[in-house]
User: Fold these one by one.
Assistant:
Number 1:
Amino acid sequence: MIEIKHKSTGEVLHTVDGDSLRGCRLKCIDLRGADFQNQDLSKSYLSGCSLSEANLRTANLSNTKILNCVAQRTDFTNANLSNADLSDNVLDVSRFVKVNAKGCKFRHAKINGADFSEGNLDGTDFFFSELRSNFTAASLIGANLFGADMCNADFTRADLRKSIMTDCKILGAKFEYAKLQGSIGTNGHPWGFSSKNLPKKQWWKIWSSAAS
């Protein structure tokens, strides 16, 4: 039997039969502040759970489905989220620093104030998500950002090559030194250039011209 404990108090929040959390199914359980650090949760299914302030650092969540959950201020630093599905979740102010989320789905998720810096988000699906977050030096090659709200997001030094940004909201977003070759802009046409460290007014003048 596996005991899921609170990261600070040690209180047992839930128990799972078996000797591993791999492939477990958790539904509508209060797991706020739970400690999953280094745990193998691959191929698991979590639905309607509260995971706010949980510790998922370096956890293996590959091919896991976490749906309709609230996970605010949750720590996914260095976690493996490859090919996972985190659609329709509230993930505001969470940490995804250096995460491996290659091929992960975040469709319709609310992810404002989060930190994805230096993360691997290649091929990630952010379709119509709220993404007012930090993506500094993150890799988003081939990412689907269609319809995402990226206002005030920071993509400084991010790699957005071959990404799709059609119908995105980008007011106030930063793209200094971002790689944009082969990406599709907000108007559905290719950007086809890399940004430079331009003054903000000049950058948006060029961006507006490219979008027209």
Number 2:
Amino acid sequence: MKHKSVNKPFLISVIILAVAGFFIFSSASLGILARNEQKFFAIAFNQIFFGFILGTIAMIATSFIDFKVWKKFSPYLFLLGVILTLLVFIPGFGIEHGGAKRWVEIFGINFQPSEALKIGYIVYLSALYAKYKDKVKTFRYGLLPYIILTSIVGAILVMQPDNDTFFITALAGFAIFFVAGANWKHIAIAIAIGLVSFAGIVAVRPYVWSRVATFLHITNNPLSSGYQIKQSLVAIGSGGFMGKGFGQSTQKFNSLPEPMGDSIFAVASEEFGFVGSVTILLLFIFFAFSGLKIASKTDDKFGGLFVVGIVILIMTGSFINIGAMLGIIPLSGTPLLFISHGGTALFLTLAQAGIILNISKSKTRAT
């Protein structure tokens, strides 16, 4: 049978996450308002107009675009992502901040091109494996494409450096590779390569090892490298069971670094407590469950793999952020999607949700 409408549970999960994210961001941004009113309005405009409003329009638009169009243009989308991301290294286009070259400015608009690279990577990998079908079990049509495409993405992102984005993207690609029906020996090889690559990055990037060391010994440097984690745990702990109430976080004003960005989960936990924190986690889990259910039911292999890639991209990044704020994994600069500051990230997240909604309307397997 054909779905005449989009998958309602998934749509509901997206709407709730986006609306909840808007209110949490609004509260977290009050810390900036108290210090710099002009900066606050610039950030708020970016989040509301480019992220929330244009993102909603993009989600509606992509929900009406036949998802097979993405398959047709997948090589060009991947190439476009590569070219845009390489612009960060070209003077006049690339913007350096904090020692990293991750931003591009075109016609006065700043954005992170790695977001385009991520989606280009997963759509192209999904298209290849959908085309190869059972040949994915072979080295030539299975493991080799994954290694080549992931290496290209990795080389660009590690040079920036943007190791967190590389890890998230590679994991989404691995999920696609796994679901496509890869050979178990090749899966083991891919995992081994991933572990060796991670160890290599830690070895050659001192600041990565510093993050790991801080995670292992948080109390050793509570005023320097361990400051953000400590303040995050203070904020989360002070929220108690029910929280202090909307807008009542005190940590966001002076103590928490990046209260609208990396630390926004800590702000939400302080204001809404244990109940609110668990609710956020459950919303993301419901989002993932609904999305993966769509992937399992569609009879189009490309559509199913594409959904898996999008869901893993969003879930991995978001759970890395939450895990870092809880002190259970090393600190990263990964935003909490749907909620953290970043108009471009919210715009693309909603656009990707629209793609999943369109796929949910396709033919489904008999149940």
